[in-house]
Amino acid sequence: MIDRVGFDALYQQCVTEVMERMPDDWSAFAKHNVGWRKDRFDAEGYLRMSTERYWRAHRILAATGARSVLDVGGFLAAFPLSLARLGFEVAIAERYEYYGTAIDRIAGHARANGVRVIDMDFATALADRAAVYERFDAVTCMAVAEHLSHSPRVLMENIRAALKAGGALAFEVPNLAFWPKRYAFLVRGESVLAPISDVYHSEVPFTGHHREYTISDARYIVGEAGLEVVREETFNYGFDTQRIWNRLKYAPAFLLKEWAEVILLHCRKPSGGPR
After folding, report:
1. Predicted local confidence at residue 226, as pLDDT
2. Are 58 and 145 in contact (CB under 8 A)?
3. Three-state DSSP class for 10?
4. Does residue 155 sit in helix, strand or coil?
């Protein structure tokens, strides 16, 4: 198994390759979420910080011995590209046409590096479920469910269907109860939802965050999908912990797992029973 330093180096190289293939015009990204405008969103910074998230997902894959992996909703594809370089058989399920031709070069680069690109929206009924049915040792679904404006049931059922019996799921969502959100709501009366200005000025459908999750919410939806929670963890990654003021300001997010920034569940599809 690769160590953390090695993973970081490999992943950061993949981010560099993705950013080299980003379009000059981001209007297709921001059409349904103005928060993704080029002058507002630091895509490279976000991807580079996300090494913490993807290292943790990789640990789940390594612990289960998975070889074939489906990344659901991987979008900019830095993580599946990293997994392919690590020797996994990797596929990414993403409906790239939602972004026009903006991500064509990124998808092409993923294909050229051994990632199978499946043109599917896993949050909708699949026209060709046979293409993914029980094909994968593991599925990763990282920061996807919170973008749904409807029930996550179909997403979770499709994930279960794609897993082989005994297969693993790394399921990650942002924590609705993250300490800074609690503080902003209780002390300043600020909404914990997406900024209303972003919702108002985005075209329908809005593709930002519709419903973030608490730990109990996340447990519930994976359980309803017939998956078992093997292990759960919460962590923080989106702010600078080297600054003493930040450590004090965000201390509750480190002291109580229910108040951390991110929820990651390691789940398993039972070997027996209905599929």
Report:
1. 97
2. no
3. helix
4. helix
Beta strands in 130-205 (DSSP E): 136-142, 163-174
Place of tokens 């909703």: 73
Element holding 224 (H helix, E strand): helix 215-224
pLDDT number for residue 95: 87
**Contact (Cβ atoms closer than 8 angstroms) between residue 35 and residue 207:** no
Residue 24 DSSP symbol:
S
Angstrom CA distances, 39 to 25, 36, 43, 46, 105, stand at 11, 8, 10, 14, 21
Mean pLDDT by 10 residues, the chain (275 residues): 96 98 92 94 96 98 97 96 98 87 94 95 86 94 97 97 97 96 92 95 95 98 98 92 80 94 98 62
**Residue 78 corresponds to which amino acid?**
A
Neighbours of 144 (CB within 10 A): 23
**What's the DSSP call for residue 36?**
G
- Main-chain dihedrals φ then ψ at residue 160, nearest 5 degrees: -60, -40
Q: Which helix (H) or strand (E) holds 229?
A: strand 228-235
